[in-house]
Amino acid sequence: MSNADESDRILYNVVINHEEQYSIYPAERQPPLGWKAVGIPRSREECLQYISEVWVDMRPLSLRQAMAQR
């Protein structure tokens, strides 16, 4: 079995941090400190698709808030 076949079977969680930045993390592991899982475990491609749909403003939350106060 190739590495590509193996990676197709791995499930991931979409994770988000306090700055509303997104990433993916293997579902079998606890997210790193400061990150929390969003939704259900899914394939890598599904996670990346979800992120591309919801993370439309790449600026950290603190920067967006500071700019909104100007």
Automatic annotation (TrEMBL):
<protein>
    <submittedName>
        <fullName>MbtH protein</fullName>
    </submittedName>
</protein>
<dbReference type="InterPro" id="IPR037407">
    <property type="entry name" value="MLP_fam"/>
</dbReference>
<dbReference type="InterPro" id="IPR038020">
    <property type="entry name" value="MbtH-like_sf"/>
</dbReference>
<dbReference type="InterPro" id="IPR005153">
    <property type="entry name" value="MbtH-like_dom"/>
</dbReference>
<feature type="domain" description="MbtH-like">
    <location>
        <begin position="3"/>
        <end position="53"/>
    </location>
</feature>
<dbReference type="Pfam" id="PF03621">
    <property type="entry name" value="MbtH"/>
</dbReference>
